[in-house]
Design brief:
This protein is α+β, with helices and mostly antiparallel strands. It contains four helices and four strands, in the order ααααββββ.
């Protein structure tokens, strides 16, 4: 029994030699999405879900078996950058909702940075913390 296990492990090691074979963040998130889509498929019967589900699992397997490690790691880095921006955006939105009664957030027209201002009625001149440009806002 143990000999069969070692033979299978040896074949697997031979197959994976020189391949990417890493469960990086992109692969993990695609697998999580695959599971979520599979659960959704139980409740919502859709042709789109039936097409996307196998495509995701094929992409994960192809990334694992790819011999171009540099390209796969670059894909993962780009995905991590995109994911970080999404997480930051939603954290800001949650913070804005929690602080709605006490503060307002305004976007700088020059650099798109957010400026947090106490919710006091009237006209205010704000300094952008990122670019230093001044702009006026009116709080009702």
């Amino acid at each position: 029994m143990l000999e069969k296990f070692y033979a299978i492990k040896k074949k697997y090691d031979k197959l994976m030699t020189g391949r990417y074979g890493v469960f990086d963040t992109l692969n993990k998130d695609m697998l999580i999405l695959w599971v979520v889509i599979g659960v959704l498929n139980l409740f919502i019967r859709s042709l789109l879900i039936r097409i996307v589900s196998p495509v995701l699992i094929v992409l994960v397997v192809l990334r694992l078996l790819s011999t171009n490690e540099v390209k796969r790691s670059m894909e993962n880095r780009k995905y991590l950058s995109f994911r970080e921006k999404c997480v930051e955006f939603f954290q800001i939105q949650i913070k804005r909702i929690k602080e709605y009664k006490t503060h307002r957030y305004y976007k700088c027209k020059n650099c798109s940075a957010y400026v947090r201002v106490p919710a006091k009625k009237g006209k205010h001149t704000l300094d952008c913390p990122k670019c230093g440009k001044e702009f006026d806002v009116k709080i009702l």
